[in-house]
Amino acid sequence: MENSDLEKNKKMNLLHEQMDHLIVMLDSIDPEKAGIEDIDRIIVKLDELEKKCQQYRNEWT
Q: So which domain of life are we looking at (predicted)?
């Protein structure tokens, strides 16, 4: 496997780990008790994931 393929796989694995972390975060939030702070944390995490996806997409095209 080429170096670029290895790097791509590492980055994809990192994205998957971050998405898994987001899912765990979402599962841990009680909808009845969720507050602004919880929603802000979710938005920040989604923004981080979006930026990483855009960065990788630009690198790979």
A: Bacteria
Q: How many separate domains does the chain show?
A: 1
Per-residue tokens: 26 = 């979402």
Of 55, 60, 52, nearest to 14 (Cα)? 52
- Give the span between the Cα atoms of 33 and 9, in whole angstroms: 38
Angle between helices 3-28 and 36-60 (to 10 degrees): 170
pTM of the model: 0.79
Q: Is the dihedral of CA 34, 32, 17, 51 positive or negative?
A: negative
Query: How do residues 23-33 score in pLDDT, each as one tens digit?
Result: 999 999 999 99
Domain that holds residue 14: 3-60
